[in-house]
Amino acid sequence: MSQAIPILSDKEEIVDIVMTFFNAGKTKNVAPLGVIQLDDPRFSAYSDVPPFDLKDFATTSALEQLRFVSISDYDFELKNMRVDIFENFAVATFTVRQTGMVVDNYSFRGQHMTMESRATFVMVKYAKWKIVHLHLTKISD
Fold this sequence. Notes:
With 141 residues, the chain is an alpha+beta fold.
């Protein structure tokens, strides 16, 4: 007897992508970030940590990897998730509370970090949903 493979709804798949994004900070496995984001010149991102300018896919990928591997004991909590789907694109909006310890590898000192941000992820669906734009804005320390 074969096992039934659960099929996620579009909304569940989008929420799963958002979870995958932030789970990279917990697992330190940043490889999935390249799978869930669209490697395309039209990709763009704003971050809640410097630099604050609009970034392309390559720059965003490099900074995300640096960010997530630099924070030990990373954890996050998503709140007020809203997903709106429009045929082949979707918008996920939510707030995220991130905590952890930022470690300075030169001085071996750590500083506790708690940050709350507003987030908007815009996704497009070709064969699968992928992030084409993300925007994080810090609302508190």
